[in-house]
Amino acid sequence: MHDAVTRPTPPTDAAPWPRRITQAVQIGNTVVGGGRPVVVQSMTNTDTADIPGSVKQVAELWRAGSEMVRLTVNNPESAAAIPRIREKLEMMGISVPLIGDFHYNGHQLLAGEPACAEALAKYRINPGNVGFGKKKDTQFAQLIEFAIRYGKPVRIGANWGSLDQALAAQLMDENHAREVPWDAGRVLREALIRSAVDSAERAVEIGLPRDRIVLSAKVSGVQELIAVYRDMASRTDFALHLGLTEAGIGSKGIVASSAALAVLLQEGIGDTIRISLTPEPGQSRTQEVIVAQELLQTTGLRAFTPMVTACPGCGRTTSEFFQELAKVVQEHVRGRMPEWKVTHPGAENMTLAVMGCVVNGPGESRHANIGISLPGTGEAPAAPVFVDGEKKVTLRGENIAQEFIALIDGYVEAKYARAAG
């Protein structure tokens, strides 16, 4: 096994721990690990064989900010669809790396569809179901050989729900022989980590370079995930993908994923993340991308779009206008960000504040690049706007929202230099 990596010392100031040093892995036009910014990825839930539907959803995820997109490749039809999906995306000017998610029969699908093997930017292999019995090692080796042949990186992703049962049984037997046996949970965590790490080392033995391997070991419990990744990070320098599997629907999934990943990211662990949300009926799949971005931005690791600070409201804020304005402003800057990213780099770092009364309104507004303090109950019908800490103008009347947004656009135009060309 590769030399273990020392866990970094926590900083004494208000900052995340130093990033864990890992192998840098080139995945299409994106680099994961090696001290690079944490990468956001997502996964489609379309039938991959549905080419128009899959292209549409990949494009939506990419426009929302997903830097890699994973698709299920589970049958010959889906494997045959991958190169056509890649071609249609490229015709749209979308070069997002596509990851093939393989279980059970990946070796057969890559053999049967060489164009799929070529079109994918990375293969995801689950060591718990890559094969069973005597076929397991052979089929795993075949998948790694395809990655070597086509020059592709691989994510070796172990999962609590599909744990290698033979390895788990072996470790249980070894545990019985210990003078002080571990509890069952620790043994299963060890099995999950060993499944990922040992498989990675086996891939290196077969001939896959270390800088073409990403590891993950997903569970559905917050504390278990933190324990697994802390342990795995101490043993190896492979790049790590973070994600809480089967996180859940709505706020439960958001809170659980954020609780687990924020701790690990704060400790410098993790090179790429996915928020595995179950979409609510009718909700866009892009929600998982937005949550991942907001998690990285609120922890100070990356900036994607200007974030709006807004007060929660209280008895002083009987009007809902400040809530409506905060929503309009956030949607406006998120909508403009794809353009600003090209024409006004740095605008993603801008801070905005929409406050609802005089208690904290002026103070919070002064802390933001642009902030507005709306009148609360019984206050004068005036809304002072602060720009970089200084009061710039007071807005009144029916067009406050439009005027405030115009001030934001003007600030971006003046503050962030337009990129050449």
UniProtKB/TrEMBL annotation:
Pfam families: GcpE, GcpE_C. Binds 1 [4Fe-4S] cluster. GO terms for molecular function: 4-hydroxy-3-methylbut-2-en-1-yl diphosphate synthase activity (ferredoxin). Its EC number is 1.17.7.3. Pathway: Isoprenoid biosynthesis; isopentenyl diphosphate biosynthesis via DXP pathway; isopentenyl diphosphate from 1-deoxy-D-xylulose 5-phosphate: step 5/6. It comes from the Bacteria. [4Fe-4S] cluster binds at C311, C314, C357, E364. Its cofactor is [4Fe-4S] cluster. Residues 22-292 form the IspG TIM-barrel domain. It catalyses: (2E)-4-hydroxy-3-methylbut-2-enyl diphosphate + oxidized [flavodoxin] + H2O + 2 H(+) = 2-C-methyl-D-erythritol 2,4-cyclic diphosphate + reduced [flavodoxin]. Keywords: 4Fe-4S, Iron, Iron-sulfur, Isoprene biosynthesis, Metal-binding, Oxidoreductase. Residues 308-409 form the IspG C-terminal domain. Belongs to the IspG family. Converts 2C-methyl-D-erythritol 2,4-cyclodiphosphate (ME-2,4cPP) into 1-hydroxy-2-methyl-2-(E)-butenyl 4-diphosphate. NCBIfam families: ispG_gcpE, PRK00366.1. This is 4-hydroxy-3-methylbut-2-en-1-yl diphosphate synthase (flavodoxin). The gene is ispG.
